């Protein structure tokens, strides 16, 4: 399938994707441990991690509870991370409070697994072929 804009438009770049979390301090520590880097910015309701390709941020919503319901992902946005070693990264994520959803899948582009953080936000890890 080929999709072309009707006229020449300036390039659109992804700047930041963010998740709402109920406990910013706990979430920042979990993502710091998972990502292996410190936030590039933090205040009382916003933490931002500078990554290659765009930033990932956490935004405080104190009414958002932690959840233990982690169903397969069917709709909604997913932030996908490219990793060199899926198994090692998955272990680090689980040790940081993230939960695996479903099995590791072998796909045409590589091995992939879906995760959720403690507030149910969706992530994907992909180890390219």
Structure commentary:
Helices cover 17% and strands 38% of the residues. It is built from 2 helices and 8 strands, in the order E-H-E-E-E-E-H-E-E-E. It has one domain (16-63, 71-128): 2,3-Dihydroxybiphenyl 1,2-Dioxygenase, domain 1, CATH 3.10.180. The two termini are 23 Å apart. Helix 1 (24-35) runs antiparallel to helix 2. It has a 4-stranded mixed beta sheet, with helices on one face. A 4-stranded mixed beta sheet has the order 5-8-7-6, covered by helices on one side. It has helices at residues 24-35, 86-95, and strands at residues 16-21, 41-43, 46-51, 54-60, 79-82, 99-107, 110-116, 122-128. The mean pLDDT is 91. The chain is α/β, with parallel strands linked by helices and 129 residues long. Strand 7 and strand 8 form a beta hairpin.
Can you give keywords for this protein?
globular; alpha/beta; 129 residues; 2,3-Dihydroxybiphenyl 1,2-Dioxygenase, domain 1
